Amino acid sequence: MSTLCYIALGSNLNAPRAQLVSARKALSDVANTHVVAASGLYASRPMGPQDQPDYLNAVVAIETELEPLSLLDATQAIEQQHGRVRKKERWGPRTLDLDILLFGQQTLDLPRLCVPHYGLQEREFVVLPLAEIAPSLVLPNGVSVAQLANQIERNGLYRRETAQQWVS
Ligand code: ROI
Hints:
This protein is of the alpha+beta class.
C-alpha cells in the first residue's frame, strides 16, 4: 500500500539551489518511493534569527510504501549526506532541511515524528508551495490548504523558478 506524503525542502547555506536539486533527486532514489510532484523554488526571508541568509524553499509530493519512521530515517540520511550539522542555536542556518509535512491523512505524535508538521499552517514558505501542488488538499484537522494560502502573509516570499526550471 502506498501513501501520498508531502515533504518540505529548505536551505540557506552552501548553494541552496544545488542542495534542493540534489535533495529532490535523492528522494526519488529512496526505496519504494516516487516523487510525483514538485512546487517551484521559492525565495523566503528567514523565520527565526534574522542574521542569516534568505532561504530557498520547495515542497514535493511523494508516493511511498515506507512506514513513517522509515521515511524519516531516509530523509534524515539525506540531510546528513548534504552536510547537515545539528547546532545548538535554535533556528540557525542550515544546508538542508527535509520536513515530513503530511503522511497521508495520518496524525502521529511520536518522540521522533509529529505529523502534520507543527509549523505547517503558520509558515508561508510551506503553505504557498504546498498550495501550488495540492490546492484542493484538506488537512486532517479539516483546514483546507487553499484557505490557508489565501489568508497567509507572504512576508516577501516569491517564486523564483517554476517546477519545470529546477526539476530535470
Ligand atoms: N526560514 C525560512 N524562510 N525557510 C526555512 O526553510 C526555514 N527553516 C527553518 C527555520 C530556521 C525555522 N527558518 C526558516 O528551520
